Automatic annotation (TrEMBL):
Residues 80-429 form the Solute-binding protein family domain. The lineage of its organism: Bacteria, Bacillati, Actinomycetota, Actinomycetes, Propionibacteriales. It comes from Kribbella sindirgiensis. GO terms for biological process: peptide transport. SUPFAM superfamilies: Periplasmic binding protein-like II. One of its GO terms (molecular function) is peptide transmembrane transporter activity. This is ABC transporter substrate-binding protein.
Length: 545
């Protein structure tokens, strides 16, 4: 077990051999259920398990049915480790990746998981670019034998290994999917390699059935129930013990929840290395002007936001890299730095760009711009948007409109580029993982869904550095390149970090014990992280058993 505060380093050239997926776990507690309260998906669920299809409104927790080839171990420095893949090795100076598969995996219909399924699954985003929601970088994949595949890249790609650990690039069964119209098929009865199948689907409760033949071992529960709830209702449900597990921020949760029963009421925060940021839509005016971006970044009251969040001291630094995880990677010039509100500097930036603020709007060359900020209303982010809006008005006289949307609409508008500013999470595994979304490789025009680069950032210098990071596995070189990217983020401001992001975990341990803790974990008990979620459930024990 490992402490959480380790620097995230992904060395893609490493050959990880051996069978190091989940340990076999004996079956216990037959008939038991784990209840998960989902706060970010509205009040009803849609029975759409087409995990790679174009629809944005889908069933929750598909990662318990469909699994990726690898996993990122955040408890061990963000290293990529085996899952459905048993081992791998780079060759051809990082342009080829040979992946060896586990031999004991079966689909939930009993058929064997083989290289044919992997070639089909990895080939889908190539064949259907609109399905490339994981942001793939490889150009081809081919079968070597029944348990081996070879992935080919156009250029050295050591640093891109973590794409194969993305739950948005899952393995799906060729014998089922290849005969379907993936643009319209909803896959109501999914067949996956994961530990669960769909037992019962109701709009307001989903019951997943634990498989008895899961390759990772027997789960200690027989069912996993998902119910929709709200952030406010969740608190009462956790206190009563109606819900075992949730993933939601709870300001003042230590006093309002943990203190009432420290042994059973667990509220845990795991740093994910990223930040909640203001992302600028650089494909449209006025946010294609660095002076406007800088002016708005200089007038974000980060301390007011984290105070309202009741998380003092979590203001983000200007690079978007968490100092707790990336201390060794940060340029010393940015260590310990948090941008304070500086109205004078912000007004000077606007003046440099030839901008004025008139009647609440940005004005230049006779054109007026009245910006808005998109945010996820299901996250309860309206209060924080108001802080930004009020500060911009007080410091610059600029009236920014709030544009809250429920989750589905929020992601649609963000991906399509239908926003001026958006409050969005930035982060990833390793420095490359945090910044790779800035590559123009993922650039799409406004109106066409983006895989990663929702801000439509298009900068040759950024592309050059990201490409160089992909071509090396030398840690010192990666650090140098990472610091160059930090300078771009600070100086050119494609996005502006507000506060450090965490995985929030809410647990009522009345029925189940064996949960990881932030000080001692090798997987994060955050629902939605695929293998980590599965590892958490495999190791739970029924209290009193």
């Amino acid at each position: 077990m490992r402490s959480r505060w380790r620097v995230l380093v992904v060395v893609g050239a490493l050959v990880l051999a051996g069978c190091s997926g989940p340990a076999k776990t004996p079956a216990t507690n037959a008939g038991a259920a784990v209840v998960y309260g989902k706060t970010d998906g509205g009040t009803t669920f849609v029975r759409n398990y087409n995990v790679m299809g174009p629809a944005t409104d889908k069933a929750p927790n598909m990662e318990l049915v469909y699994e990726p080839l690898m996993r990122v171990d955040y408890g061990d420095g963000g290293v990529v480790k085996p899952w459905l893949a048993q081992s791998w090795a780079f060759s051809d100076q990082g342009k080829a990746l040979t992946i060896k598969l586990r031999g004991d995996v079966t689909w939930s219909d009993g058929q064997k998981f083989t290289a044919d399924d992997v070639v089909y699954s990895l080939g889908l985003p190539i064949e259907k670019p609109d399905f490339s929601i994981a942001g793939i970088t490889y150009k081809s994949v081919a079968k070597v034998d029944a348990t081996t595949v070879k992935v080919v890249f156009a250029e050295p790609s050591y640093a891109t290994l973590n794409q194969f650990a993305n739950i948005l690039l899952p393995m799906v069964p060729k014998h089922v999917w290849s005969s379907q119209n993936l643009n319209t098929w909803t896959n109501p009865d999914p067949i996956g390699t994961g530990p669960f199948t769909v037992q019962e689907f109701k709009p307001q409760q989903i019951t997943l059935q634990a498989r008895s033949d899961y390759w990772g071992g027997k789960l200690p529960m027989t069912t996993y129930k998902i119910i929709p709830t709200s952030a406010d209702a969740l608190k009462a449900q956790l206190l009563k013990g109606d819900i075992d597990w949730a993933s939601a921020s709870w300001p003042n949760g230590e006093k309002e929840y943990v203190a009432k029963d420290p042994d059973k009421h667990l509220y845990q925060l795991y740093s994910n290395g990223g930040a909640m940021s203001v992302l600028f839509n650089t494909a449209k005016a006025p946010f294609d002007d660095v002076h406007v971006r800088r002016a708005l970044a200089l007038t974000i009251d980060r301390t007011a936001v984290v105070t309202t969040l009741q998380r003092p001291g979590t203001e983000a630094g200007p690079t978007g890299l968490s100092e707790q995880l990336f201390a060794d990677w940060l340029d010393p010039a940015y260590k310990g730095k948090v941008q304070k509100v500086d109205a004078t500097a912000a007004k000077a930036e606007l003046a440099k760009g030839g901008w004025t603020v008139e009647n609440g709007a940005l004005v230049k060359d006779g054109k007026r711009y009245q910006p808005s900020i998109l945010f996820n209303a299901d996250w309860g982010w309206g209060n924080y948007a108001d802080i930004l809006i009020n500060t911009w008005k007080q410091t610059l006289g600029l009236q920014v409109k709030g544009a809250g949307q429920p989750s589905a609409g929020y992601y649609d508008k963000q991906n399509l580029g239908q926003f001026d500013l958006v409050a969005a999470s930035t982060g990833g595994s390793g420095v490359y993982g945090v910044y790779r979304f800035l590559s123009s490789r993922y650039l799409t025009p406004v109106g066409k869904s983006a895989t990663l680069n929702q801000g439509r950032w298009n900068d040759p210098e950024t592309d050059k550095i990201i490409a160089a990071m992909q071509r090396t596995d030398n840690v010192d070189e990666l650090k140098t390149l990472g610091r160059q990217l930090q300078k771009i983020v600070v100086d050119k401001t494609p996005f502006s970090p507000i506060y450090n992001n965490f995985y929030f975990v809410d647990i009522n341990a009345t029925r189940w014990t064996g949960w990881p803790t932030p000080d001692n974990f090798d997987h994060i008990p955050f629902v939605g992280m695929g293998p980590d979620t599965i590892l958490t459930m495999l190791k739970l024990q029924r209290r009193g058993s």
